[in-house]
Write a structure and sequence with these properties.
Oligomer: single chain
Number of domains: 4
CATH class of the largest domain: Alpha Beta
CATH topology of the largest domain: TIM Barrel
CATH architecture of the largest domain: Alpha-Beta Barrel
Radius of gyration: 31 Å
Length: 972
């Protein structure tokens, strides 16, 4: 298993910087030193193409010397621009035999920089034709190694194509490079200073971190995986090592067996053989008869694409594991979701205990060998290492196990960057914890502490209209280990009773791979272990009964620890009005139904419906419904046969989506067009994807495509639901298979318009490739844009042409879904993606695909969960509850606007109506067009893709909603 080309990984410890010699010079172990800065001319090479004054590089003898006696200090000047260096033309020759480029780095800067590595060959002329490795990891203070995989370098315009799908000209010619650049973006307020050394090329085995293990006399040890990265003292076994009497060890058959692993979390366990096809692995080693202790490192391969689900691991006749889980069991907390309830911890070696030791488990067993051989058989397991020690040397075996465990733990933590964490400090008046109610806009993480106002707010106050879903939170900062803690809910009473059963309770689960923690999911429990120094957050999501009488309701929740109980007073005001139910907005997420793993076919429809019901509870009003599927292309007669899936239309209607003309569902058409193109003589097969837009040049295409549009229009009419059909996703002048350029996008839009199909498109900005993309507004019904200045022209042209404006991928924050969307007169708010599974491979080539493991890419805002236990087979993050509150904000505005209209029409409350109108006008004016966003330095930067809005205005939403409620009380 190889890392994708975009993957940058950081090897944290200086201990792995030197390239240690292997016991056997087999496999791909070659290295080439490019720069060690022992020669003054090396610095000059790096500065040859650097922009004058932007970067300084000098040779020094401090901080990062890992090869020779010198290193280089690189100073990138502040200013917020690109800064870096090139490697020089002599050292970039003939890189084709290497797999990685690496350099050792040291910095004292606490800002995490993304370092970019870029390759140009003789055919590279611009961004689209070169290869840019966007970094996936970031720098941190201290010593580290940055490394990029270069043996899968493809041109940037070939995004979305796998390596086997590429044609030769799509790949960077590594033996004919003309430029190699390393650069970053500096901050505006300070220089970026780095020390670098030992710039080198590595073949794959040389790139794996090294390890030494003490073995007792008489031990026989086998290291499975790459033969070129064997731990000294171990015999190498890869997929080609077949058993022979002469050799005395090997696989009985190598059929279906592959090697994997990149030497993480340690060289011994993190390199293995396995079978992606679920074939049985059989290993045999000739050993004298007798008693032995065996140490075997082998782990389950947990992934939904297994050919079968039989799990077998045995050594000789000793069965260590033999189980064939049903699909229900596989989709449970025993397999796919085995880390779901693993709590984040900062205790010593907690990450090792909670994750790594379970990912790469070890079995110790006593064996009796009779017959002169030891065998290991495995199905759906990866096998990393086997050590046999004569039973007479039990003390040595125990010592070896102890030392080996310590070595593995040490190796892992050298690759695990966990900076010293700042935590809230206990004040003299604090007890063992502080419980407080955070501001609605405050994100809670392990190191979050309360402001003075938040700390003083120990009770929960909320307000809402009958039928409204409201969000309440409380956070706990433990200054000691509190043990198991529980928040117990209770009924609230006032004009009636609001039962505790109306509240869904969650605690916020964290995930971390070291540098920081993010939110994994809201777990449906109000009980958890509270550890000293880790702030925890409870989320309460409540629906006010639709028939609740207006008034104040009070109750008391209870927070319990092992030491006692604390009352949490709760007060809820129920308003004397109801909110507008049918909002004139298409609120939705890109979506494709539950997957990875798929629910069984007999419950799939129900699980999709449950997910759509949950979307409605969040406030979403629309969902993607797919597009036509081409079943036959009749080229001579210029006809196409299509099939249509009505499932999502039916379920959207069932759950109450698309209730007004503005609540348009999202459909698509380019898949149909591409399928037609693949069947045409001039663009048959993969040519359409290799040259996007080629289909439009074929003489047969327009007639066949028009026939498809005619059928599509008839189908849409038959559904009798509001639908907008995506013309092209993010058009660009150098398109990927799923994009088209501006001219082709317009051509498609015009043909669709002629067929009477409502259209939308998602341009990334006002222009691309030097062309003016704002002309799209003349050809579309809906223009869907990012909320940043780069789309200002699109927004203006959309309004000028009287077209509908949508926003997409602006963020999952409350403000942009509510008040900001209203201010901008947007009628659509779409985000990527409801239950996206995550991109990329697991860390270090780990072969599993399980959820809730921070070292695996599976990580979604609506994360997959056991389908038998959880509604919709998902859990979700607090982002969706923030969105729910944003949609509620929009509902308050719409309700007030309707109340104003009704009062004006009835000639009532003239003064108050005018005051309310003036309030809304002033509010719309006060909200900036392009607000400040997270991580950006100036208001003018707008909302970057998916980052959300964090303007000062976003902190006034509770105040604005309360003001609107005041008017509604009087105008109802």
């Amino acid at each position: 298993m190889r890392l994708p080309p975009s993957f940058l990984f950081l090897v944290i410890s200086i201990a792995v910087f030197p390239l240690l010699c292997l016991a056997e010079d087999t496999g791909r172990t070659k290295t080439r030193l490019l720069f060690s800065f022992e020669n003054p001319g090396e610095v000059e090479q790096l500065l040859t193409d650097a922009e004058p004054g932007a970067v300084d590089i000098i040779a020094v003898q401090d901080n990062c010397v890992t090869e020779g006696t010198n290193c280089a200090r690189v100073t990138c000047k502040k200013g917020g621009g690109y800064c870096g260096f090139t490697l020089g033309k002599e050292v970039i020759k003939n890189w084709g035999d290497f797999d990685y480029f690496a350099m050792d780095l040291y910095t004292e800067d606490t800002n995490p920089y993304d370092i970019v590595f870029e390759l140009w060959d003789q055919a590279s002329k611009n961004y689209h034709t070169r290869c840019t490795f966007e970094s996936q990891g970031r720098t941190h203070p201290g010593k580290q190694t940055v490394m990029w995989q270069i043996n899968r370098a493809k041109r940037n315009n070939k995004e979305g194509r796998t390596w086997p799908e590429l044609e030769p000209q799509d790949k960077i010619d590594m033996n004919n490079l003309k430029m190699v650049k390393i650069f970053l973006v500096t901050l505006k307020d300070r220089d970026a200073v780095f020390w670098i050394d030992n710039l080198r090329l590595l073949q794959e085995d040389a790139a794996k971190p090294k390890m030494k293990v003490w073995l007792p006399d008489g031990a026989l040890a086998f290291d499975f995986g790459s033969a070129g990265a064997t731990v000294p003292g171990f015999k190498a076994v890869d997929e080609k090592t077949l058993f022979s009497e002469e050799k005395g060890y090997g696989l009985i058959s190598g059929e279906g067996v592959e090697q994997g692993g990149l030497g993480w979390p340690d060289l011994l366990s993190g390199k293995f053989i396995w079978s992606p096809s679920s074939a049985q692995i059989d290993f045999k080693a000739a050993v004298p008869d007798g008693e032995y202790f065996a140490w075997l490192c082998a782990g389950k391969v947990i992934r939904p694409d297994l050919k079968n689900r039989h799990y077998l691991l045995k050594i000789n006749d000793t069965v260590l594991f033999d189980e064939t889980p049903s699909y229900e069991q596989f989709c449970s907390e025993s397999y796919m979701y085995r880390f779901m309830w693993t709590q984040y911890s900062e205790k010593q070696n907690a990450v090792w205990r909670n994750y790594i030791d379970k990912m790469y488990p070890v079995v110790k067993v006593r064996l009796t060998v009779a017959g002169g051989a030891v065998s290991v058989s495995a199905v759906n397991h990866f096998v990393s290492a086997l050590i046999l020690v004569p039973a007479a040397k039990e003390a040595d075996f125990d010592r070896m196990v102890s030392e080996l465990t310590a070595k593995r733990i040490d190796a892992f933590y050298k690759s695990f960057y966990a900076p010293e964490k700042t935590r809230p400090q206990r004040a003299p008046e604090d007890g063992s914890f502080v419980l407080y109610v955070p501001d609605s806009w405050t994100a809670i993480y392990p190191g979050t502490g309360p402001s003075a106002l938040e700390k003083a707010r120990t009770g929960i106050k909320a307000a809402g209209a009958p039928g409204q879903r409201i969000v309440m939170r409380t956070a706990v900062v433990p200054f000691e280990d509190l043990g198991k803690c529980t928040l117990s809910l209770a009924d609230m009473t006032g004009a009636g009773t609001i039962p505790a059963a109306n509240i869904r309770g969650y605690y916020q689960s964290y995930r971390s791979t070291g540098a920081g923690a993010s939110v994994d999911a809201l777990l449906p429990s109000l009980s958890l272990e509270m550890e000293k120094g880790i702030t925890q957050c409870y989320w309460l999501w409540m629906q006010i009964p639709v028939d609740a009488a207006a008034g104040i309701y009070r109750g008391s929740f209870t927070f319990s620890t092992t030491a006692g109980k604390t009352a949490v007073p709760v007060e809820l005001e129920v308003y004397p009005f109801k909110l507008e139910d049918t909002l004139p907005v298409s609120y939705g997420f890109y979506y494709g139904g539950p997957s990875n793993p798929q629910p069984p076919e007999d419950v799939r429809r129900q699980k999709i419906k449950e997910q759509l019901e949950l979307m409605r509870e969040f406030g979403l009003t629309a969902v993607p419904v797919g597009g036509p599927r081409v079943t036959k292309v009749d080229v001579p007669n210029r006809k196409v046969a299509l099939s249509f899936d009505t499932l999502y239309y039916e379920l959207a209607k069932e759950v109450g989506m698309a209730k007004s003309p503005e609540q348009q569902l999202m459909a698509n058409q380019l898949g149909m067009a591409r399928s037609i193109g693949r069947a045409l003589p001039g663009s048959i097969g993969a040519k359409v994807d290799q040259s996007p837009g080629l289909e439009l040049k074929q003489p047969e295409f327009k007639d066949i495509y028009t026939d498809g549009l005619r059928q599509y229009k008839q189908f849409l009419d038959s559904m009798n639901m509001p639908v907008a059909v995506e013309v092209v996703d993010e058009p660009r002048e150098v398109p990927n298979p799923w994009n088209r350029n501006l001219a082709d996008t317009i051509a498609y839009a015009d043909m669709m318009k002629q067929a009477g199909i409502p259209t939308f498109c998602t341009p990334m900005g006002d222009g691309g490739g030097g062309l003016d993309y704002t002309v799209l507004a003349q050809h579309l019904d809906i223009v869907s844009v990012h909320a940043y200045p780069g789309s200002k022209g699109q927004i203006e042209q959309t309004r000028k042409n009287g077209k509908t404006l949508w926003f997409y991928n602006t963020g999952k924050d409350r403000f942009s879904w509510g008040f900001y969307n209203w201010k901008m007169d947007s009628k659509g708010r779409w985000e990527w993606h409801f239950n996206w599974e995550g991109d990329g491979d697991a860390v270090g080539g780990y072969p599993c695909d399980e959820w809730y493991n921070p070292f695996v890419a599976r990580n979604g805002r609506a994360a997959s969960a056991p389908y038998t236990k959880y509604r919709g087979a998902i859990l979700f993050r607090g982002d969706f509850l923030d969105i729910c509150e944003g949609v509620n904000d929009y509902a308050y505005i719409c309700t007030l606007q309707k109340a104003i209209e009704a009062n004006v029409k009835a000639g009532k409350n003239a003064a108050l109506t005018k005051e309310a109108q003036e309030f809304l006008a002033a509010l719309k004016k006060a909200i900036p067009e392009f607000p400040h966003v997270k991580g950006m330095a100036s208001e003018a930067d707008g909302a970057l893709v998916g980052m959300g809005i964090e303007d000062e205005a976003a902190q006034k939403v509770d105040e604005w909603r309360a003001k609107i409620a005041e008017y509604l009380r009087k105008l109802k």
